[in-house]
């Protein structure tokens, strides 16, 4: 009888431990902060180090903010693009909001799904990447085309048009899709190919940006390798630049930069997540200076360097550059646009 009673007690103990463990896991899930608003949870020593990294030498800050941030009438902003007249096209919810270059609302394009990325061509067409396909609209908001869906694993994150070619970044399949202007698939760019010295893109999180530079080369972020790669339009990898570093001239964490834009002089403006910084590089990838650091972006309370994608989930800064050299920063967490111009231009 004593042995039987002991077995019963042991069984109840096991059951109790299982119930407690399940309950603790459930509570942990409920308390999981995916926004970062409750703080980083990091030690004070680590936070002190981060605060030091977040400090930017004032001599390196080459831009100043113009006016107050433009508040957006969106629940979830996702991407920004500019047209040739400097209007802002903001993708979010299930619409595209079109604002003047100072932020005044002008009109909107209503969509059938959630836009993830967009670009505006010189003739006013708007190419929009939804979750699994591309749609094309004219300047008045009329839909001109809806391209073939690409499947459930598709995650479209960036789109660019150049000389009748359309390039679409698919973070889900880790590939760049090359279309003609009518939506016919021409080929893939960036597939792993040892014979062509192409390693394949390393995309730890759904941040995968691209643009065609004025030299005619397609620039694509390889965020897992902390660099920007240059491809011919036929898919040959020419060169890359960028390095993983916590220093101001490098890209920190597991997967940066998250987004970039091309400046009128051929340079680049880049955006990072985690330790959020917006910086400028020249056309060869040489560090030039800073547009805004965490302090200028109001991000000093949520400092973090993301060594894994899970550490910095969710939204990230997007950037656009105007023909006048102004930099537009879309804060997708606060749903605002901050506009910066070079300091000498403001004097």
Question: Which descriptors apply to this entry?
Answer:
globular, 347 residues, 4-stranded antiparallel beta sheet, 5-stranded antiparallel beta sheet
Structural write-up:
This protein is mainly beta and 347 residues long. The chain is built from two helices and 25 strands. Strands 1, 2, 23, 24 and 25 form a five-stranded antiparallel β-sheet that branches. The protein has a four-stranded antiparallel β-sheet with strand order 3-4-5-6, with no helix packed on it. 37% of the residues are buried. The model is unreliable at 1-10, 13-17 and 22-42 (pLDDT under 50). The termini are far apart. 12% of the residues lie in helices and 34% in strands. The protein is globular, with a radius of gyration of 23 Å. The chain has helices at 2-31, 44-54, and strands at 63-65, 70-71, 77-82, 88-92, 95-99, 105-110, 117-120, 126-129, 134-137, 143-146, 156-162, 165-170, 175-180, 185-189, 210-212, 218-222, 227-231, 237-241, 259-262, 268-271, 278-281, 287-292, 318-321, 327-331, 336-342.
